[in-house]
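Figure S7 source data.
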Amino acid sequence: MHKTLKSAVVVFVGSLVAASCATNAPQDTWQPKGPNAKLIDDLQQPVFAVAGIIGLIVAAAVTYTVIKYRDRGQPIPEQTHGKPALEITLTVIPALILAVVAVFTFGAIFKLAKTDDTEMIINVTGQQWWWEYDYPVQNEFGITSPIISSGQLVMPVGTKVLLRETSRDVIHSYWIPALNGKRDAVPGRVQTLRLEADEPGIYAGQCTEFCGLSHANMRMEAVALSKEDFAKWVANQQAPYVVPAKDSLAQQGETVFLNQCVRCHQVNGLMRADGTPAIAAPDENVWSGAAPNLSHLMSRNTFAGAAFDLLSKKCRDEVWGAPSNVVGAKYLAGVTEDCLNQKDLRAWLRNAPEMKPMYANPADLEISNGKYRGMPYLALSEDDINKLVAYLLTLK
Ligand SMILES: [Cu+2]
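Tokens for the predicted copper (II) ion complex:
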């Protein structure tokens, strides 16, 4: 066999084999789990089929021509100029195909852009390199005071959720492939994205607009809960602050937290020693002007832009692998001491920029006017880290 032909066959067969490898592909765009993603899938399947058939016909025609008419020293054939009938036909046929595709595409685009049937609103803000969610007051869902969370977007199933997206720094893009296409989060603008899940479950996604050094570590999940489970989640997010038991390790951790962390991280209801509420000022300390609200940190099971698990491997597999009728209950159990991924949380407190690159060049810190991009290195002692972990575990 000819050498190039041989390698072409190897590449072709190889890519077919490679393409069929992924059995566990949570970000597969071909497995819609809600009506918006289904709408896109219903469009892309036939379009892909038509394009595929045309692609095969063209490839076959090219291969046939290349082999049949390859240069064997034969005389140059008779030269012609133009064949109007053929040219018009070959223009009209693709135009008709594209016109049909366009009709269905526009239909889908308008349906996906609808906002007037929205049942629930969640504000989504991107920043380097994590997502913040802010649930405005919506009494019909029991949200009587705003809820602020990060990383994992929790939503009720069978509900038309409208994300209102923006960004605090550069352009990011929100994408949960199982639930819908992508929508850019642009500073100074609000853009909407519909999400709706048919079944309870955890659906993975990631930022899909290159946004700097840790773009690849800017991930997220949508957690769809049954309506009853969602109501429980809401109630927990609004539950008041629980003061750590007197003389416990967690109480010492609270003190460390007040000294080291509260300038960036809000914990609702946390009081300073003098009895005044501790109000975080991330705008003074962080380049994007925000840091995750940690009030109910242990109710989520990933952290730092969903790049790391808060749950140990064993517990994570139990939650994420749970069938849809129990996944909600498992998720709501949150992170208990037995299930905490101690290793990664401690490593994060020890030296966050080492786990998640924030600066290609440390001198860049000066350029951001002394404000950190992401979570800084805080030179904490192991003793303080022990106390902090005990404290963070109380933030259920
Ligand atoms: Cu991003």
